[in-house]
Design a protein that fits this description.
The chain has 271 residues and is mostly helical. The protein contains 13 helices and no strands. It is globular and about 65 Å long. The two termini are 28 Å apart.
């Protein structure tokens, strides 16, 4: 996640350069960044295909199977029941999905909001660059805080940070680059807190033998949440305003509070 930051910050600031390149080859200006993105994904995919040996999933499955065979104290039924803590998975999934929904909704509409009020592509790239840096760069520190302060505490911090982001975005003057940047930095930071605390909860609640399948299922819902919020956010802004969208995101982030309260009612059992 940290290494992602370099490309995430540099990439948006190459929008103008790639737009000029797109113009030079006869394609729409805004297609330029997608050309760079496509090339980067192709290179990354080839690199993983050729050099990622052995596949981490295969190694993880082998380790899990070895532990399962060595665990002679558990019967087949009791082992199955011990592999997953459903409440922990649900709480972790809700945290991840909700933070993704709020983040993607506000982030998606920010460039359009800025463009409608006279900001250029360079300014948009700068704001989104800071936003994506805030999404990924704090990850090592967030991981330490999640371990030291607890998963639920950091999930609550995610909700509070997203709330602050939504309020700043809603009430910031449209011409204020510093406040728009602050709103998007808080948005990325709140997403980071939610993603890592939610993922940690899911890891805590699953045995290695079912962890990949469980994480994969949650990741699908996580991705669908982002896609849905992007579409919904466009309709909200079209029929209302960016401020209304931001306030809605701020209010929605408060849903994390009852989730945190519910998760504390009965402590999760140890695997």
């Amino acid at each position: 996640m940290v290494s992602t930051t370099l490309g995430a910050v540099v990439g948006p600031n190459l929008v103008n350069r790639m737009g000029e390149f797109a113009d030079s080859i006869g394609v729409p200006t805004l297609a330029g960044p997608f050309i760079l993105s496509a090339a980067a994904f192709i290179i990354a995919g080839l690199f993983i295909l050729i050099f990622l040996r052995p596949d981490p999933l295969v190694v993880s499955a082998a380790i899990a199977n070895a532990k399962k065979k060595d665990d002679t104290a558990l019967t087949g039924t009791s082992l199955k029941n011990a592999t997953i803590n459903k409440k922990g998975v649900v709480v972790g999934a809700v945290i991840m999905i909700l933070t993704q929904f709020v983040m993607a909704a506000i982030m998606t509409m920010t460039p359009i909001h800025m463009g409608h009020h006279g900001h250029g592509l360079g300014e948009v790239g700068l704001v989104i660059g800071f936003h994506i840096a805030a999404m990924y760069l704090p990850s090592p520190l967030t991981g330490i805080l999640v371990d030291k302060l607890g998963r639920i505490t950091m999930a609550a911090a995610s909700g509070a940070t997203l709330l602050a982001s939504g309020l700043v975005a809603a009430f910031a003057p449209v011409g204020s680059m510093p406040l728009l940047t602050l709103a998007l930095v808080l948005l990325g930071l709140g997403w980071n807190f939610g993603l890592i605390s939610g993922t940690a909860l899911i890891i805590d609640s699953t045995h290695p033998s079912v962890r990949a399948k469980t994480q994969g299922s949650v990741d699908v819902l996580f991705a669908l949440s982002g896609a849905a919020s992007g579409g919904i956010s466009g309709m909200v802004v079209a029929h209302s305003s960016f401020a209304a969208l931001s306030l809605s995101g701020a209010i929605l982030s408060l849903v994390l509070i009852p989730v945190v309260v519910w998760s504390r009612k009965s402590p999760s059992k140890e695997l």
